[in-house]
Write a structure and sequence with these properties.
96 residues, alpha+beta, 3 helices, 2 strands, 32% helix, disordered N terminus
Length: 96
Amino acid sequence: MKTQSRAYRPTLAVKIGVSRQVVIPKRIHDQLGLEPGDYLEVELDGDRVVLTPKALIEKRLAEGLEDMRKGRVRGPFRSVPALVRSLRKARKPRTS
């Protein structure tokens, strides 16, 4: 009886374009939550090319600025107790 060391994963073939571009299949793109402008780290692992999504600081900074514009942040605070008081005021009352 033969056993396989890896779980079965269907593979997809993609074509390298004229300017070395590779299109990531939509299903994989969606599963990873990729968006235009996202960065991928490219590594060579033996004879394989490995693409790994990377969250860069600029993207997180843009998300933080968007939160500020939409009023989803509080502060700055002079102390930790001031922060805790603000959080308690903002907390929604529980309904049983």
